[in-house]
Write a structure and sequence with these properties.
Aldehyde Dehydrogenase, Chain A, domain 1; alpha/beta; about 500 residues; seven-stranded mixed sheet; 15 helices; Aldehyde Dehydrogenase, Chain A, domain 2
């Protein structure tokens, strides 16, 4: 195992399944390679779960549920805070592991680890409130009866998470699920399982009872689909592609279980003529090239008002050409590789199709001549609105730029998509910003702001981007059932 980037921490990696509080090999002994995307070399092998392992994990979670759901909110909060402190104690190692497995620069991985900490702390505070707010009396029109609403944990929750933000998407699901009193079977992406397994080890050290958290690594068909279909799973929370999310929803419908989906996006950043151009370039680059563009929230469609279009495009092209792409551990690197060979193939194919679509290539377009799944930041201008480049999620560092004339045109163009996750607006006109935020069909709108996300708010979108919401009190409610109780007064 090549763990040079982690050798200074001298801690072995977990590579087995976590079921019922114990680490164990898969039933049939199969293993999956884990690749360093910067070098294309194998850094570890993890167990590949199959049908028998899924059954064991769900059974362990179901067995643990009765005990976990009867704990107080304060007791659950204590465990969540212990997880947060455990992540803090290993922040450098966890960030390094993310960079090694996912390919993101170390500075971006540091942000991810901090996000995990604040998410567990936030849901610990909500868990404490359940001891007093778990039951709410309802004011009735008469005096003959009393009624109250109880919030109860849904049951066994299957959490299926992607590879672009290891540990972050897990924290957004795991923290509220545990706070609500659910037990969990977590399926990490087979591409980036190592950070999730280390997070699971921290959770066990924090005192979670056996079976409350189970982690089974493996492929989507072997693990994810079986979890979505399992009759003992009460809730499925999935983050990934719209195509796979559709299949998860269809499968879950066969047993009428709760489903939460965080799916794709093809979002716009709208820059008006009065914008601060330096700020606009920063926000466009951040929205398109952070995490090598591998974000459902990537604002990869750049709409710029015509009077400033030429100047902004020139500045943006210069920023793209100057962006430092390379080894995520190297000083000064601003963008790492794509996370997998499959994603590299998809992105480079999309770039080739863009060149053939009539769009004008302004920057990038060819991969660096080096090992690893590296792609240069790429910008297209004059992109036809009917092209796949404009309409389909690429999930790579590829921006498409179009000019617009009026506010109404910008709104119509930005909303002309099957997705509705996020949007960014850059303008000095506060009233215009407020109008745009109201008119854009998106779950999150940033006004003159980078893509900051707070666990106290919400995450999710319109149309085919989401079903339900994560973060904030909405994330907790996603793992709760609502019960009405009525009795004579």
């Amino acid at each position: 195992m090549n763990t040079a980037a982690l050798s200074q921490y001298d801690v072995p990696l977990h590579t087995q399944l976590l079921i019922g509080g114990s680490w164990s090999a898969s039933a049939d002994g199969r293993r999956l390679p884990v690749i360093n995307p910067s070098t294309e070399t194998v850094i570890a092998e993890v167990d590949a779960a199959g049908e028998a392992d899924v059954e064991r994990a769900v059974r362990a979670a179901a067995h643990a549920f009765e005990g976990w759901k009867s704990t107080t909110g304060a007791a659950r909060a204590a465990r969540l805070r212990s997880i947060a402190r455990g992540v803090e104690a290993q922040c450098e190692r966890l960030a390094a592991l993310q960079s090694l497995n996912n390919g993101k620069p170390l500075a971006e991985a540091d942000i991810d680890v901090s996000d995990v900490v604040v998410t567990f702390d936030y849901y610990a505070s909500l868990a404490e409130g359940l001891d007093t707010l778990g039951e709410t009396e309802v004011e009735l029109p008469g005096t003959d009866f009393r009624a109250w609403i109880r919030r109860e944990p849904a049951g066994v929750a299957a959490l299926i998470v992607p590879w672009n933000f290891p540990m972050v998407t897990t924290a957004w699901k795991l923290a509220p699920a545990l706070a609500a009193g659910c037990t969990v079977v977590l399926k990490p992406s087979e591409v980036t399982p190592l950070p999730e397994l280390e997070l699971a080890a921290i959770a066990m050290e924090a005192g979670l009872p056996p079976g409350v958290l189970n982690v089974i690594t493996g492929t989507g068909p072997e693990v994810g689909a079986r979890l979505a279909a399992h009759p003992s799973v009460a809730k499925v929370s999935f983050t990934g592609s719209t195509a796979v999310g559709t299949q998860v929803m269809k499968t879950a419908a066969e047993t009428i279980k709760g489903v939460g989906l965080e799916l794709g996006g093809k979002s716009s950043i709208v820059v008006f003529a009065d914008a601060d151009l330096d700020l606009a370039v920063d926000l466009i680059a951040g929205g398109g090239f952070f995490n090598a563009g591998q974000m459902c929230s990537a604002t990869s469609r750049v709409l710029v008002q015509r009077p400033i279009a030429a100047e902004l495009l020139a500045r943006l092209a210069q920023r793209a050409e100057n962006l430092v792409v390379g080894d995520p551990f190297a000083p000064g690197v601003q963008m790492g590789p794509l996370t997998s060979c499959a994603q590299y193939a998809r992105v480079t194919h999309a770039i080739a199709e863009g060149c053939a679509s009539g769009a004008r290539l302004v920057a990038g377009g060819t991969p660096p001549e080096r090992p690893g799944y590296f792609v240069r930041p790429t910008i297209f201008a004059n992109v036809p609105t009917e092209s796949a480049l404009w309409r389909d999620e690429i999930f790579g560092p590829v921006l498409c730029v179009r000019a617009f004339d009026t506010e109404a045109e910008a709104i119509a163009t930005a909303n002309d998509t099957q997705y509705g996750l996020v949007a960014t607006v850059v303008t000095r006109d506060a009233a215009r910003g407020t109008r745009m935020a109201a008119a854009l069909e998106a779950g999150v709108v940033w006004l003159n702001s980078p893509q900051v996300i707070f666990p106290q708010t919400s995450w999710g979108g319109y149309k085919q981007s989401s079903l339900g919401r994560e973060l904030g009190p909405f994330g907790l409610a996603a793992f709760q059932e609502i019960k009405q109780v009525v009795r004579p007064a």
